Amino acid sequence: MGAKKKYIARCAFFCFAWFMAWPSFAHEMNTAYLELREREHDVGVLVRIPEFGKSFSIVFPEGSVEQSEPITRIIEGGTVKTWRMAVPEGLENEQIGIPDLEINDLLIRVQLHGGSVQTLRLTPEDKEFTITGAPSQAAVAGTYFVLGLEHILEGIDHLLFVQALLILVKGWKKLTGAITTFTVAHSITLALASLGFVHVPAPPVEAIIALSIVFVACEIIHGRQGRPGITEKSPWLVTLSFGLLHGLGFAGALSEIGLPQHAIPMALLFFNVGVEAGQLLFVFAVLFILGILRFTKLPMPGYIRWIPPYAIGTVAMFWVIERVAGF
């Protein structure tokens, strides 16, 4: 590949990162959360509305009565409202209506008194859902696959790390080994943390994940200055170390959703499969763009090659400061 095409390729990496980032930010701002936790005598209701989202009404089964006034709290990025409902016949096999859902989608988690957990997503076209108790293994697999896929495609920090690897690691053999090691590493910590064998506070993990992106961006700059670092020489070592950290980040997202007690292995497996599918989609999309750019001959100035690492490093450093300040 000629010098001009290399410049174009690096520029494409940068542009593609921000192309992926915008849908991510929009999705985060427009996703709400509903939790129904059934107890012996009532149902605890929790609704989280994002900062730029709209409130929605919930239609409970006939005969349901509010047992407490809703309490609204302002949190970072939105509001949380909690209250208690009396549902005479219980939640199992009942329909819950969401007639005026206007946001992008709604994540729902239902925990019945018997311990079974149901997780699903609604779009504005869905006006109601049925609480089935213990969903089938196939339903669990499908739901958690989609959740894993959406999480990685919304996780711009994880994707920027992968993108930096694509820029830095030279050769198909090294790149394949690096991506494989990263996958294996974060799969291990995702499983260990989700199953309760590892407990690490989320804020430090998120800050170190951002710092890992800064590190790889610096490695790109040093390599182009004629000082190749450890990532370029032994990428598997870096992806193994940071992959373990990124897996803890995935586990933090999964802990917010919860795992169905009757199908924990299935849910964990397919959440991870969804994450890997999203990661591969991102890699293939970047490679597809590069394939198209091989046929172009656009003149590009020399400074273009420095934009991607500095842009990635700057954004990641902002995240480091923001996340450390949030401790």
Automatic annotation (TrEMBL):
Q: One Pfam family, short name please? A: HupE_UreJ_2
Origin: domain of life: Bacteria
Kindly indicate whether the keyword Signal belongs to this entry. Answer: yes
Q: Which UniProt keywords apply?
A: Membrane, Signal, Transmembrane, Transmembrane helix
Q: Which residues cross the membrane?
A: 144-168, 175-198, 204-222, 234-254, 266-291, 303-321
Q: Does Nucleotide-binding appear among the keywords?
A: no
| Annotated signal peptide | 1-26
**Descriptive protein name:** HupE/UreJ family protein
Q: Which organism is it from?
A: Pontiella agarivorans
